[in-house]
Structures are given as C-alpha cells and as structure tokens.
From TrEMBL:
Residue span, HTH tetR-type domain: 10-70
DNA-binding region listed in the record: 33-52
Protein name in UniProt: TetR family transcriptional regulator
One GO MF term attached to the UniProt entry: DNA-binding transcription factor activity
Transmembrane segments: none
Length: 197
C-alpha cells in the first residue's frame, strides 16, 4: 500500500513537472496559470502544493530538470573529444550554445534567475561545478593547467559559461552573440593552460 502511494506521488510529481515545463516554455513563468496547469494533468492545486510548496517550487523543479539535462548533454559532447582539456572546452561551448534553445532561454536563463535568484546557488549548477572541479583537479595533476586552486579555476570557467549563456538569452540577436561568446569563453579558459595545448 505504501509503495503504491509513493509511486502515485512520483507519477503526480512527474506529470506536474512535465505540464509546468510546457506551460513555462509557452507562456513564461508569470503568465502560466497553475489552475490550467493542474487541470491539464487531472490534478488539483493541492497536489501542486503538496509536491512543490508553490509555483516557485515547481519552477525550481523544472529548472533543475532542464539544467541537469543541459549538463548531461554537454558532458556527453565533451566526452567525445578523448582529451580532458578539449572535453572541458567542448562542454562549456556546448552549454553556451544551448542558450539558443527557446525553452532553455525562457525557463532556465530568463525566468529562472528572475524568480529563483543567483543561478550559481542552484543545485543543478552546484553539481555541474563539482564535475568541473574534478576535471580541473585532473588537469592540474596532469600538468595541462597551471598549478591553480582547482575550485577557483572551476568556478571561473563555470561562471564564464553560465554568464555567456545568460548574455545570449537576454540578447535581441542570440545567433549573433553566440560566436562572440564562445570565442571569448575559449580565450579565457585557454589562459589556464600551463603551455600551449
């Protein structure tokens, strides 16, 4: 009985996140109606409040889901390079490029910071930072990167990628900003190299 109840709660949670993701992408956070959203999946506002506390909590869950997907995609792209340094650069460039996706722009890069505050404090960004720190530790140990504090270097590289994505999302011409942002990101990150790579 308890297992079934837990499964139902997880199903309801997943339904609400999926519906919110669609509503926030189409209408934006402020215009999305929680009554319409819950009704679209056959649930009540009570289910929303029980699972997420409020609309802001639901946005946090949606942002976490999308940002985690972005990080996974970027890591997958980075892993194809076969080299830790090139992989880290490819991850950052891929994350920046994802800012062209309208769903990412609206939910993660525009509404997310406006409603949830500083993205560097989000759980998804903290997980990303830890992965970057571990990669930076390996690069320092390998002598690829200057002997810097790995966390400091990871925070600056992660921050540069995030801020480039935020800039693209806020731009009137994101496609024009993307190559500039990626070029500057690569130039900044290359300053960490112990020697030309």
């Amino acid at each position: 009985m308890a297992k079934r109840r837990l499964e139902t709660m997880e199903e309801n949670r997943a339904k609400l996140v999926a519906a919110a993701r669609k509503a926030f992408a189409e209408k934006g956070y402020s215009a999305a109606s929680m009554d319409e959203l819950t009704a679209s999946v056959g649930l009540t506002r009570g289910a929303l409040y029980h699972n997420f506390g409020d609309k802001r909590g639901l946005l946090a869950a949606v942002v976490d889901q999308i940002d985690s997907e972005m990080a996974s995609r970027a890591q997958e792209i980075g892993s194809r390079s076969g080299d830790d340094w090139q992989g880290m650069l490819a991850e950052g460039a891929a994350y920046i490029e994802m800012a062209l996706n309208p769903e990412v722009q609206r939910i993660v890069l525009l509404d997310g910071p406006a409603v949830l505050g500083d993205p560097s404090q989000w759980p998804s960004q903290s997980r990303c930072l830890q992965a970057t720190r571990q990669a930076m530790e390996r690069l320092v140990e390998q002598g690829v990167v200057k002997p810097l504090d790995a966390e400091a270097a990871a925070r600056l590289v992660s921050g540069a990628a995030l801020n480039a994505a935020l800039w693209i999302a806020a731009s009137d011409k994101p496609e024009d900003v993307l190559p500039k942002a990626q070029e500057a990101f690569l130039a900044l990150a290359s300053g960490l190299l112990a020697k030309q790579h």
